[in-house]
Each structure stands twice: as structure tokens, then as C-alpha cells.
Please model this.
Amino acid sequence: MAKEIRTIGVMTSGGDAPGMNAAIRAVARACAYYNVKCIGFYRGYQGMIEGDYCEMNARSVRNIISQGGTILKSARSEEFRTKEGRKKAMDHLKKLGIDAMVLIGGDGTFRGGQIFSEEFDIPVIGVPGTIDNDISGTNYTIGYDTALNTVIDAIDKIRDTASSHDRLFFIEVMGRDAGFIALNSGVGAGAEEILIPEEDLGLDRLLESLKRSKRSGKSSSIVVVSEGDKIGKNVYELADYVTENLPDYDVRVTVLGHMQRGGSPSCFDRTLASRLCVKAVELLLDGEKNVMVGLIDNKVTATSFDEGLSSEHEINKELLRISDILST
Ligand code: ATP
Model:
């Protein structure tokens, strides 16, 4: 029989994402509702290793649902990648009487959690919190919707100035390995071209598309570029290339950078975080372990780490076709 769960630990790890606070709140409140003690660790796995924690109750998470960032802070921990580091973390969990953990983060966080759980036989549940939306086992990750809206807002503003001066803007958005942000914000903001890590559209096509735009009477253009676009040129190199080959264009570059991680979470992200984290606590109380929770076809669903981590969350390439048609 599974051990009774009396104390649950929670932490946020990897890159921060809007909605992580709503997730922490939901874990703390669900624990209070079910009469389970809740302990929050600061700075992800590093805080577990160092025993840096706080006791949480329903009131200690008041007014955080609307705040960006994470009150528990986030970090990447090299030490947790070692067995010695993980042993130190487990020693602190034992000392605090923690029976199970809710881990809010990305795929790296889940990988670490899976190893930790198997090594020390402690139940863990992963909650997908990352702006990248690159986790299979969920249609949406917490923070992605807010990041998209932040990007759209920024592109709209850049478009105002681009059209006033008849300029071509290359706008770099986050996504080293995944093009979700670029693809969806590109379609949503009406970009002329979208460059993503999953698909090499080629430089010739880019030039052709920009020439076609000019011919069709467009005087300004927006090209949205993922950090890790498959063409293999960064946004400044792309701008130089286009300037050399299409001297008629007045080219500018904007890198949106870390602003994409900040801001008050959207209603979608708050609701998603709330649904996933209540489920995470309930699964632990039901004796479930080593799964991630996610939203699939609008149902909160548990997927084993093995399955969630082994497959890629595929982008919807149909959006490239839509973008092509609409940028005519
Ligand atoms: P994001 O998607 O925002 O980058 P992430 O959770 O994928 O978030 P990572 O830096 O990859 O971010 O992972 C977070 C932490 O998880 C790492 O700093 C490390 O402590 C732990 N971790 C990742 N992979 C492993 C692993 N194979 N073994 C042990 N720990 C790991």
C-alpha cells in the first residue's frame, strides 16, 4: 500500500514563467483544503540541496495569483545532476518529513525529478511551467499564453513604427529549440515571414517572399525569428544578408529578450495553473507518482514521465501555410 501523504513539498525550477505563482498558490491551497502540510523550496533543486525552504499555508499565498515571476524563485542546479547533490536534497526532505514533491518546471526539471524519484523512492508529480510550450503530455504549458500575448503586444507596437518609416523589422523571440512562440505570435501579429527551428525555409525563399511583398505594394514588413531558427543565422546576420541582397529595404532588428518571461499571467495561464496543480496534489493523495499533469483536449490528464519525455511536442506546421496565404 502507498505511504500516507502528510507533507507535500513544492518548488519552481528552470526558466521562470508567468503563472508559476498561480501554480504555487494552487498547490498550497489544495494542501490546506486536504489538511496536508505544504513546504515550499526556494530556487528549485538548489534550495532542496541547501535546505532553503518556507512553510506554506493558505494565507501565505494570498494575492500572488496575478503576479508574474515566482515567489519561490527559480534556478538551474548543476549539483542536482550529481548523485551526491540529490542525496543532500533527499536528506533535507527526510528531515522535514516530506512525503512527496510537486515540481513546477520544464522537461529538464521532469528529467531530474524522474531520476530523483527512482533513486529514493519518493513520489513526484511534474507540472509543466515554461513559456516554450515544448513539453509533450500537454497541449499548453503554464506561461506560454502570457508570453504569446506579450510578444503580440510588442510586435503591434513595432509595426506602428515600421509602417511610419517604411521599414523591414526582424524581431527575435524566445525559442532556442522550439518555434511555438514564433509561429503563433507570427500568425497572430500578421508577420510576413516566420523563421523557426523546426523548418528550414531557406534564404532564397526569404528574399523571394520579401520581393513579392514589395511588388504587392507593401511598404513595411515584419519577420518573426525564433532564437534557434533553422536557417542558422542569427537575427543580425539575417538583417545584414537582406540589406546586402535587397538594398531597397531599410532594415532594423529588435530582440525582445527577457521581457517575454515577465508580466502578470493571462487568465488562461492562471486557470491552467490552478487546474493542473489541484490535480497534482489530488494524484499524490491517491497514491499516484512519477507522472506529469497536462491539459489534453481540455481535460487534465496524467502522463508518465517516460512517455512525456520520450516524444516531441510537435508544432502545427499548418500555421506556416496559413501565414503564407495571409501574407499575400
Ligand atoms: P526550461 O524549459 O524553462 O529551460 P527546464 O526545467 O527544462 O526549464 P533545465 O535547466 O533543463 O530547465 O532543468 C532544470 C534543472 O533540472 C537543472 O538545472 C538540473 O538541476 C535539473 N536537471 C535537468 N536534467 C537533469 C538530469 N538529467 N539529471 C538530474 N537533474 C537534472
About this structure: The mean pLDDT is 94. Residues 13-15, 45, 76-77, 80-81, 105-109, 111-112, 115, 130, 132 surround adenosine-5'-triphosphate (CB under 6 Å).
